[in-house]
Specification:
Chain A is α+β, with helices and mostly antiparallel strands and 367 residues long. Chain A is 13% helix and 32% strand. The radius of gyration of chain B is 13 Å and the shape is globular. The chains are: A alpha+beta (367), B mainly alpha (84).
Chain lengths: 367, 84
Amino acid sequence: FVLTPGNPRWENTNLTYRIENYTPDLSRAAVDQAIEKAFQLWRNVTPLTFTKVSEGQADIMISFVRGDHRDNYPFDGPGGTLAHAFQPGAGIGGDAHFDDDERWTTDFQNYNLYRVAAHEFGHSLGLSHSTDIGALMYPSYIFSGDVQLSQDDIDGIQAIYGPSQNPIQPTGPQTPEVCDSKLTFDAITTIRGEMMFFKDRFYMRTNPFYPEVELNFISVFWPHLPNGLHAAYEVADRDEVRFFKGNKYWAVKGQDVLYGYPRDIYRSFGFPRTVKSIDAAVSEEDTGKTYFFVANKCWRYDEYKQSMDAGYPKMIAEEFPGIGDKVDAVFQKGGFFYFFRGTRQYKFDPKTKRILTLLKANSWFNC
Amino acid sequence: SHGFPAATSETQEQDVETVQKYLENYYNLNSNGKKVERQRNGGLITEKLKQMQKFFGLRVTGKPDAETLNVMKQPRCGVPDVAQ
């Protein structure tokens, strides 16, 4: 996080705000609610309070304007700059302006007012932009379905105003660090020749063009996928990737979620109802056999016959000796299986049923 | 983020406008309207580009490569990323 140079802050922590005008894109009630919720996020983690006033000069004046609105920072029409806000202080200090050449929404469509307002009010309170892509105070607009302060945002605002009086200090999600030696994964899959690693709300992606690991929100590609996925695998000859969470799964082709999903794993794959979720999954391209890992057992599904193979489930220890009795994630590359358990990774040869190498979980990130 | 597969890292120079505006708006590039390629002090542009690439965790090349332009085209907050 970054505090605004000069560390401007409100000495009076009981602040007022006023919505001077309303966008035609939403009802007044929807705007009121989005603004109120945005202040609520910051109130929950600080001693600050925010009271809405309907007339006169408030600490934080909120308005919808377009183009040059005489504050020396003209807006630029649709897209580009969405809004801006001024650091704490008298007069224009603390005020937030929203570009009314944008379309303001209360859902996934661009641009979600609650999400943008929560960011702008961070500026109104004294925060600058954060370099943490998972933080609300990151400069670029990313809407991942829910609006919450990350731990980075909380640390930043509490550096200015101290903690809330809440007996239980609220915490926020942390953004994965690709070179953190303690990094573990929820799910991993290949996708059109690349690899995607999933953790909480984020994916990490390696591809031949960029040595850097790309880290971003899963919602950037698949807005309606849930966070905290359990398993994922690619059926390459169908150009399809399947994502699992609980007893549901989604199928995507590139960035398009296929119609009619989520479906349940019982009807589609024939799992018994005792199976509540899948830990990991991988499909062998040359045999069309997909292995599902659930607790200490594994099932084998035939993608061509579209049915489970007889004789399963088997113990993981029997089918894949040496990798332990539980799998977090697995993918296949170059004919080998790469099994992940905690911070460990096993390169496994399914033909000889032997572990070839023991690696760190984040060995693919060139740390 | 790039689609699947990721775009190649070849740079399309025609986005000079995007670079100019972005650096003026968010990285205090004062160029009073002169075009980037005619900037006498191309070094200033390179420095500002490196500053932006470092902020966003991109490869710090000082060149408007594809992933840098990709970030510059994303809608965002109007507050600069560096102190005025």
